[in-house]
Amino acid sequence: MLDPLTIPPLLATDPSPWLQVFGRTHPLLLHTPIGLLPGVAMLEFGAALLRRPSPRGAVLALAWCSALSAAAAAAAGLVLAGEGGYADELLGWHKITGLSFAGTCLLAALLAARSGRGPFRLALVVALLAMVPAGHLGAGITHGEGFLLAPLQTKAKPVPPAGAGTTPASVFAREVLPILERSCTKCHNPEKHKGDLDLTTAAGVQKGGENGAVLVAGDAPGSKLLRVCRLPEDDDEVMPPKGKSPRPSAQELEVLERWIAAGAKFD
Ligand code: HEC
């Protein structure tokens, strides 16, 4: 069985800037086959439903457009994955379903020229079925797992809005949390918790990550939370990982530093 986590990115080392740009066209390219393939299916099955001859030329042309754009999107996706920062189970399954989608699109395009319609229609249906999880997992990677149905969940908000209730909001809620929310919680939240770290609540920040506490009260330079933010941009361990979320500004880092130096209090 193929382990989804071990599919290598297309490039192990730093890709050239142009290749990197190609990788970043992935979110742009991927919409082409998502739009075209259902069109192919509508033409093919619509004609069959209406008992008309299938518009072969249009089906064949669109099937190839879908296949080639799916292949380009998959190639760009593999390059983009090589940029790192996506070390996630979601990514492994996204690769598997995305490559299956591109593969079956190509197969469908090859079969579309044949006069027997059965194999082509089967490949078309399989490609459409692979498209759903591939797209859904891709959305999960960019927007966070459970993005689609999150509004239906009646979970309590992790932190009350600043100034809510009668007690004034803590420095943590008022000043620190908004910084974490802007730069960090895309990956460090209860659903995603990269590095086993949840930065959406006081409890999560206090608990720390897979390597233990990220805060040392009163010791800003010794606190991992701040240290990883101050690493140079191309360091492997810098947070947020290069290009993934806005980096905290110098001013924001100062807020974090002052808060930790003052004892990293949550009340
Ligand atoms: C794009 C996703 C992403 C963003 C945004 C992000 N992180 Fe991370 N973070 C990760 C991943 C992935 C790991 C695990 C790294 C590893 O295991 O090598 C991690 C690990 C960590 C760790 C180490 C936890 C431990 O115990 O080892 C800390 C501390 C951390 N992040 C802090 C932050 C802070 C602070 C921010 C915001 C300024 C941030 N991260 C933003 C993805 C992200």
Based on the model shown, name its key terms.
267 residues; mainly alpha; Four Helix Bundle (Hemerythrin (Met), subunit A); 10 helices; elongated; binds heme C
Helices and strands in order:
Blueprint (H helix, E strand, L loop, with lengths): L16 H7 L2 H4 L1 H19 L6 H26 L7 H24 L5 H26 L27 H13 L18 H6 L16 H7 L19 H12 L6
Helix pairs in contact: 1-4, 3-4, 3-6, 4-5, 5-6, 7-10
Averaged pLDDT: 86
Beta content: under 5%
The count of strands amounts to 0
* Main structural class: mainly alpha
Number of helices: 10
Question: What separation lies between the terminal Cα atoms?
Answer: 50 Å
Helix content: 40-55%
Question: If you had to describe this structure to a student in words, what would you say it looks like?
Answer:
The chain is built from 10 helices and no strands. It has 267 residues and is mostly helical. It has 2 domains: 4-150, Four Helix Bundle (Hemerythrin (Met), subunit A), CATH 1.20.120; 171-261, no CATH class. Helix 1 (17-23) crosses helix 4 (56-81), helix 4 (56-81) packs antiparallel against helix 5 (89-112) and helix 7 packs across helix 10 (250-261). The longest helix is centred in the N-terminal third of the chain and has 26 residues, at 56-81. It is elongated and about 75 Å long. The termini are far apart. Heme C is lined by residues 85, 87, 183-184, 186-188, 194-195, 197, 208-211, 214, 224-225, 228-229, 239-241, 244-245, 248. The site of heme C (HEC) has 25 residues, from helix 9.
